[in-house]
Amino acid sequence: MKLWGGRFTKETNQLVHNFNASLSFDQKFYKQDINGSIAHVTMLAKQGILTTEERDSIIAGLKGIEADITSGALEFDEAQEDIHSFVEAVLIDRIGTVGKKLHTGRSRNDQVALDMRLYTRDEIDELDKLLYDLLKTIYNIMEANLTTYMPGFTHLQKAQPVTLAHHFGAYFEMFLRDRDRLKDIRKRMNYCPLGAGALAGTTYPLDRTYTAQLLSFDGPTRNSMDSVSDRDYLLETLSALSICMMHLSRFCEEIIIWNSNEYRFVDIDDSYSTGSSIMPQKKNPDIAELVRGKTGRVYGALTSLLTTMKGIPLAYNKDMQEDKEMTFDAIDTVKGCLALFTGMIATMKFNNDVMEASAKNGFTNATDAADYLVNHGVPFRDAHGIIGQLVLLCIEKDISLDELPLEDYKKISPVFEEDIYEAIRMQTCVERRNTIGAPGLAAMQEVLAVYKDYLNN
Description:
Elements: H1 14-20, H2 23-26, H3 30-46, H4 52-71, H5 83-95, H6 108-144, E1 149-154, E2 157-163, H7 164-189, H8 208-214, H9 224-229, H10 232-258, E3 266-267, H11 286-309, H12 323-346, E4 349-350, H13 352-361, H14 366-375, H15 380-397, H16 406-412, H17 420-423, H18 426-431, H19 441-455
Antiparallel strand pairs: 1-2, 3-4
Helix pairs in contact: 3-4, 3-6, 3-8, 4-5, 6-7, 6-12, 6-19, 7-10, 10-11, 10-12, 11-12, 14-15
């Protein structure tokens, strides 16, 4: 049964039907479609457009369809054009003529706009839970590693000593912003398009505010043309998900480097690693690599939908059907990546001694050695040159600044005394940095208290 066949004298060409149909993918939001229909007929009965008996019969039929789809007792009929046609056809088959009143006062244009908003809203809630779990996992790692010293990097070169807690804290901030972005999008999109009709509303006395309340929206949309043609909330969602994937990809890149034989900062758990079909010694960080790779897939969805929408005049056009598959795929991809990434870092082992030794051998305390001279009256520019000479000497001797004998220090500058070793100790270098945002213990404990309060509220 087609919802629009009355003015046509020929059957649709099968290839045209296949090209035009969307049931193969929009079946994904059958629950949202049915819930929207239940709210719609509830409102129609309230307004006297349907009788109470008609309402109850339609709602019972819709709930039965939902239950049967969920259980697998009812299979989707690919002869139907879309999920809306399928549900309505099954409803009429089950409850008779009264089922034909389901579509009173609405169009598939506002119906699909509603379904997509309901689906996206539900998925944002799921993404929010996954981001919370990731933030909680990062927090736990931070709390356990406030004194785990490691090199901080710029240009992928060892720069200054930090802690593992401080390094992970940077990602806590990133994913916190991701979570806030999605919450902001959810709030902005939470208006109900149902009742906008095809583009110009309807002559039926609908109570759109009541429908919005039934579906937990903040109110009805205010322009019927925008209601059926707006996909901004999807573009915003895909943009936010692209940024989130960028953060995951950066994190994965670091874990891949840290997991290498050259770094050995971390050991990825066997349950999140794979091997080689030919090289028995291999243990590959495939999950991290796949998350990094799938980032481009989500970027592609955003670029594709932006391109689709850029030339579409008001109001609804069939081009907009292209929003679904890419959005569904992007959301599923991000959900999978978040869940797997969280599990991977939760089970990852950190090689604390290796990280601290890397910080020492990478001269990350060189700036603190320069600060030592400045605190003893040496101009910074001179101190910078002195420490540069000492680093060259250490490279020649293949030792760290911590291991360089005091007499070698004094040969280059008589200002150095025995207390230089305390000044350049990893713990000292980190602990002296206690402004908010720095890696010092007091500063990090203050930030962790803020994070803990955030996670508990």
